[in-house]
Amino acid sequence: MKTIVNKTHAPMRVPLPRGKVLHLGPLQTGQISHNDLDHEPLQRLIEAGQIEVQGDAPGIEATHERLRGPQAKTRGHHPPTSTPAGKGDR
After folding, report:
1. Element (H, E) at 51
2. Residue 86, SS3?
3. I want to staple 58 with a disulfide (CB 3.0 to 4.6 A). Which of 14, 27, 62, 71 is the partner?
């Protein structure tokens, strides 16, 4: 995956192959595949300086693994939840 950056101060629609569009806000980043870099309309935006291509970004699997926090080890019964007593259907 490659990371692209919207270098303008306006929202942008980045055309991608197969009729897809990536919407980027002002100065925001997005990820595209390596194969999408050869798309002609995308190349024109790069040459105009409106977007910048940065190096490789981690894949979705690596990102999810890194963002997941530690998991609680529960055996047997689950810990009690923090629901207020006396609320809800009786």
Report:
1. strand 51-56
2. coil
3. 62
- Report the alpha-carbon distance of residue 54 to residue 3 in Å, rounded: 5
| Residue 23 contacts residue 13 (beta carbons within 8 Å) | yes
Dig out the tokens for 3 from the structure: 């990371």
What pTM was computed for the model? 0.58
Structure tokens at 25: 């806000």
Span 33-53, pLDDT tens digits: 988 889 999 999 999 999 999
Map out the domains of the chain as residue ranges. 2-58
Rounded to an integer, what distance in angstroms lies between the CA atom of residue 6 and that of residue 8?
A: 6
Instruction: Supply the DSSP symbol for 88.
Output: S
Contact 1, 20 (CB under 8 A): no
